[in-house]
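task queued by scheduler; priority normal; single chain, no ligands, no partner chains; default sampling; output format set to structure tokens
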Amino acid sequence: MLRFEIQATCPVTGARAGLLHTAHGAIETPVFMPVGTQAAVKGILPRQLLEDLDAKIILANTYHLFLRPGPETVRKLGGLHRFMNWPRAILTDSGGFQVFSLNGLRKISEEGVLFRSHLNGDAHLFTPESVIEAQLALGSDILMVLDECLPYPASHEAARASMERTLRWARAGYAHYLNNTGGGDACFPIVQGSMFADLRRDCAARLRALDAPGYAIGGLSVGEPRALSLEMAGISASELPREKPRYVMGVGMPEELAQYVACGIDMMDCVLPSRNARNGYLFTSQGRVIIKQARYKEDGEPLDPSCSCYSCRNFSRAYLRHLFLAGEMTFSTLATLHNLRRYLDIMRQIRQAIILGQFPGLLKAVSVPARDAS
């Protein structure tokens, strides 16, 4: 069973450093989770995640794995850990965000969400119970309940109706989890309420009654200003149990990571480091590098002189630019390795600062908008 241990708390901001104990190892928090949507982090090998990045937990997507190869196929092959040969922890989301992104391909009812596959148009129904069944078949360490994710902006009336449905689905899904789990995993309800503080507080307070081992905060990064995302995350976290881990879904830019931790967040994920890497947008300690720019054509310096990742130890900006412009697959691997290393290094620095009592100073230093590297 998942267990959370708080090791240090910043007295100024409330930021926490802890240990999240799972069946597949302990995870130092705050933690950033690389996104492995289809049981693979795009562009890099599991060995690189283990040896080069030392990632303790990754995220996989229930919607995509439900469509292919299917949860029962994964179960028959020994579960997601064996299927993808990943020995550490895995979190699966419910697929709710992907389903609600389908727009005209889905229909919401009290029962759940009827949707058509983006692959072949086949109809499927996600219910609070069925998404739990799918994740139990996958065998992940941390499961998510089905929630409704509204686009931005939404009216207060629509947001309240959506939040109430999310609460009903959370109760049904969590009850199904309790009745069917062997006790070796954990299930998180998800706080919703769009960008309305009163709805966020209400939803979080009512979800506390489930006494879940942890809680997620969803419905962010759906088009709202980034400052509003942070505000809603902080409001949601403030209503959740102090002793339980808090996971904010789908955020953020490197300079925002410490800000979310300052809100009391322990876990984060986002496709930005890997997706941006493949598009030639690289995060460094000196600022962002848009590698296609002509100024890097003869630049023999490493991407980030302060980074010790494989890419920065061995290759120049000029070489990376050449690979990108040539369309070489190797670029995606080297760029993804670097961007993920940058995110994980930031989280390790944040954790160390909390433990040493230096977090307010680090927060002030790193929470500045991205700039171009010189």
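post-processing summary
- The longest strand covers residues 3-9.
- The radius of gyration is 20 Å.
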